[in-house]
Amino acid sequence: MGEMSRCLPATLQLAGVSFIMVLLLSIPIGFLCAVYKDGWFDRLMRGVIFMTTAMPPYWVGLLMMWLISIKLDLLPTSGNGSLAHLILPSFTVSLSYISTYIRLIRNNMLENMKQDYVMYANVRGLPQKNILVRHILKNSMHTCIVAIGMSIPQLISGTIVVENVFAWPGLGTLCISSIFNRDYPVIQTYVLLIGVLFVVFNLLFDILQTISDPRMRKGEA
């Protein structure tokens, strides 16, 4: 427990910044892809999504380290202690999730655009911006709540490879070193912690989705 408590803050810091990057990038990009469907921006982003989804995180991390840190000399290659050390590993962890949520938000918005309430809102003469943001985007995010909740433990567990690539002193680095040293109690505690996080966040965001979406409440059936 002493080793886990020593390394947990670094992993939470990395996962937290990665989660913020996912939200800040995926929501506006997915929104614009749906609004400008089949336009140049949508086609460009779909190509980027196709490539980034297929890239393993450790390979993305090594490429970014080679390009940004070594060739351009903009950010440090490893370690922690400042915001500059956090940018590369956080973006590496969040990249696949950003691609997933851009596609999810885009598809949900396109489905909602076909619903009757959108036609009624247009007939009433509501501003197009209000229809897109307050109605279509809001209803599209309901189906993303559970997926976003499951991404939090996935981000924490998914840092195991990226932390070793960037020498980030978190739970992932501790777990890999414990595997090589056959330190079974640490490995068992790590697996148990990740399992508990998945169960807790899955339950919590199921409840939040039920609260936020009146259609899923049993009283409204």
Q: What would your notes on this structure say?
A:
The protein contains 9 helices and no strands. 81% of the residues lie in helices and 0% in strands. It is mainly α and 221 residues long. The relative contact order is 0.14.
Helix share of residues?
over 70%
Under CATH, the homologous superfamily reads MetI-like
Quick one: how many beta strands? 0
The CATH class, by name, is: Mainly Alpha
Second CATH tier, the architecture: Orthogonal Bundle
The overall pLDDT average reads: 83
> Judging from the principal axes of the Cα atoms, what is the shape?
globular
Summary of the model, kept short:
The chain contains nine helices and no strands. It is mostly helical and 221 residues long. The chain has a single domain (2-220), classed as MetI-like fold.
Features:
MetI-like fold; 221 residues; 9 helices; 0% strand; single chain; mainly alpha
Describe the protein's topology.
Layout: H1 2-35, H2 40-54, H3 57-71, H4 83-112, H5 116-123, H6 128-142, H7 145-165, H8 171-181, H9 184-212
Helix pairs in contact: 1-2, 1-4, 1-7, 2-4, 3-4, 4-6, 4-7, 7-8, 7-9, 8-9
